[in-house]
Design a protein that fits this description.
The chain is α/β, with parallel strands linked by helices. 34% of the residues lie in helices and 14% in strands.
């Protein structure tokens, strides 16, 4: 499926772009809540499905990218799904889009691609889950990365934020903030283990059923 995102028309001042890559295997109501919050706090939000080199993935990247696109479309036009959508009744989130071309195993390369799209002026914030904090010291050229972006950490149940880890990042030059958002306590792992459609949006559920992406759920 071909999909070309819209390049944002950014305001002339305070260009703030949030960069949010996620495994999205599959994207859940928690991902949607995070995206909605980011849309309320940044001028533009760029989202993509990523391959985390420290994780294994069950589902091909193309499927995960398509599911993420469906989730974002739900945010952009929440009334489309009536009472069935997680974002039903909320205002559309129009300053967000899928930028799958930003996906790279090396986040520093993602930032380079973002600069090619938007230039040097915008302030870039890399959005990561609290579960990734312990992995950061192993990231490619972390100190160079921290010089180019600010970090926004999304709290996650079961992954307490340790002050020692945050201080270590700051000692490397990182500018770290904690997002004041509390997404639903559901995860992609929860869905893969249970197959509970209540943890995902209706369009994503329909796509999963159409493509038979997690067939083990039908083996009862």
């Amino acid at each position: 499926m071909n999909y070309s995102p819209l390049l944002p028309v950014l305001p002339k001042t305070n260009h703030r772009i949030a960069l949010f890559g996620t495994s999205a295997d599959p994207p859940t109501a928690g991902h949607q809540e995070i995206c909605c919050w980011l849309g309320q706090h940044y001028d533009w939000v760029a989202v993509w499905a990523s391959d985390n080199p420290f994780k294994s993935h069950q589902t091909p990247l193309a499927h995960r990218s398509t599911m993420l696109k469906l989730l974002l479309e739900d945010l952009r036009s929440p009334s489309k799904y009536g009472d069935g959508g997680f974002n039903s009744g909320s205002s559309p989130v129009l300053n967000i889009d899928l930028y799958q071309e930003l996906s790279s195993p090396r986040t520093l390369e993602t930032v380079t691609k973002a600069r090619q799209l938007w230039g040097e002026e915008p302030e870039l914030t890399l959005v990561i889950g609290a579960d990734l904090i312990s992995q950061l010291p192993r990231w490619y050229r972390l100190e160079d990365l921290l010089q180019q972006v600010q970090l926004l950490v999304i709290p996650r149940a079961g992954y307490p934020l340790e002050e020692q880890d945050l201080q270590e990042l700051k000692s490397l030059g990182g500018k770290v903030a904690i997002a004041h958002v509390h997404p639903p306590g559901v995860s992609s792992t929860d869905y893969r283990n249970s197959g509970d459609d209540r943890t995902i949006t209706p369009p994503v559920a329909a796509y999963i059923n159409q493509e038979n992406l997690y067939p083990c759920h039908n083996l009862a």
